[in-house]
Design goal:
The relative contact order is 0.08. About 80% of the residues lie in helices and about 0% in strands. It has 2 domains: about 150 residues, no CATH class; about 180 residues, no CATH class. The chain starts with 9 loop residues before the first helix and ends with a helix. Helix 4 packs across helix 10. It is globular and about 80 Å long. It has about 400 residues and is mainly α. The chain is built from 13 helices and no strands.
Amino acid sequence: MARPAEPNHPAEEDVESSVPPGVRLAASWSWRLLLIGAVIAVVVFLIVQLRLIVVPVLIAVLLAALLVPFVDWLVRLHWPRWLAIVVALVAVVVVVGGLVVLVVWQIRGEAHALQHRSVQAFDAFKQWLQSPPLELTDQQIDSYVAQAVKALQQDSQVLISGALSIGSTLGHVLTGALLTAFSTLFILIDGKGIWSWIVRIFPRTARPAADGAGRAGWTTLTSFARVQVLVASIDALGIGLVAFFLGLPLVIPIAVIVFLGSFIPIVGAVVTGALAVVVALVYNGWVAAIVMLAGVLAVQQLEGHVLQPLIMGSAVKVHPLAVVLVVAAGSLLAGIPGALFAVPFAAVLNVMVRYVSSEAWRSGPDVPYAGPPEALWRTVPRSRRWRDRRDAASS
């Protein structure tokens, strides 16, 4: 025998009706945002814990994004794919090895002169300490130096433990380099197969959206890699030329450091350019330091007002303020790797979200995606046609 329905409780209805609609809406949004935040926190925690694997793989993805267009271009010229991949990898090794050789060659060639100029710079600094307004005596300077040496001796245990950990660090670096090389090689060989396997992890109904968003993100990443190399080269050339005309030592190492630092847009060129300003101040005086600072700021303005809007803007639609914020957040969460990958991650995520929200993946295979202004001309898989035909039949 069926139980009679329980009567409604007027007290509960009164409590429910007494809650304003805005509060109910805020509560609904709050628990959803808390859930999303918890998932993001778990993902970030796992990435940090697995950073020795994640960082080399991310570096391999960036290298592959730079090399895949070159390999495809050689294949279109009727080169065998294996030969195109070998040529691309050898080119990377030659470029990196050439930069290392140039840096070591200049450091060794200027070692004696650097030692002499360093002594002169220290004497000049000591003379400045002895002049007004500080007017320190030799005994005071020697006392400060002795205190610094004593503090260094007291912390020798930390230095020894750090030295003992060098072997482990070198092992991690070697392992990361090998993992990066193998990951890059396999992405160049079978990148499409790897992506197809990743797409099959998603539910069947979500695969078209995931596939289209991933392809749109990959297009943005390849554009970012090519354009960032060009921007970094211009930054390094500009700051290196200023350092060369000022007669600074270690011009090639400074240019290489600026080139590497410029892969962090907007922020990297300024931070690494500060090294050139310090070198100019120590070895050539205040006037050279001011000129070097003006050169660094001029290169930064060129990047911010010309290169970023005209060149980088066509590849990455991220506002400069957003670039600074994501770089700061990435460096806070993961240090230098976080600052390096923050901008490409934000750019790719932005394009993927806009692709999914535009529902371009619901279109037929012959209908291009032209939603955002940057118009990523992408089509969706043919497996989506049945839904279009079903919708047309039901209407």
